[in-house]
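Researcher: We're teaching a course module on how sequence relates to structure. For the next exercise, students receive a sequence and then see the predicted structure as tokens, so they can try to spot secondary structure elements on their own. Here is the exercise chain.
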Amino acid sequence: MNDVEKFEERSSAQMPVPQDQGTVSLVQMAMQRGYEPEFISKMMDLQERNETRIAKQAYISAMAEFKANLPTVIKDKENKQYSSMYASESALLNTINPELSKHGLSAAFSFPETEGNTLKVTCTITHKAGYGESVTLPGPIDTSGSKNPLQQVKSTVTYLRKATFEAITGIATSDPIADDDGNSSGPVEYINDQQYGSILDMMNAAEADEEKFLKYLKIESLEKMPLNKFNMATKALEAKLAKK
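Model: And here is the predicted structure for the students to work with:
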């Protein structure tokens, strides 16, 4: 008689049913019923896959609920070099983390091995059921200004922590809304991936200097270009291309 037949025969036997139906409980039950180790191993694999599937479904559901009502992160710091506002890491994390927690989610950062002058940061969002997903971004060490080596690393890590966190949560920061009797235009809308790619292609073709271009547009990064500056950017690049 094989194990499957044993299972069918003994499934109706009066055995104590553990309250915890996890992997350990199933293994204990199988051992009590005399199944072969190979069969027990298959049971464990099946149970672990099922638990992973359930945990993933819980994660997807929680993220969907979180993104259904995304909080607004206000830009609270000024980049004097580009005359633009940006959201500090504390503003980003202190606004979003409590909202993630409401849905059983939490964020953590790790730092994979560096490669030359490139740093990597990984942001992982994990659900309390155990399933999580990650985003990893690399970046060159920030040597701008008069930073010492430690400040260069800290600046790069801070930027990558923010970038990975925004990427995996889908958060977009907004400019402060002034007191204008309710006539404010609301949160800033940014260019999409296709528009961003178009800008990059035009910059490469025009051999434009990114730092000077950002200063001209008064923005912090190309990825976070306000939509209302897209036409201004493309016209400037078109004019530069016409001169080549």
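Model: If you want an answer key for the exercise: Confidence is low (pLDDT under 50) at residues 4-20, 177-186. The chain has three domains: 3-66, 73-178, 189-244.
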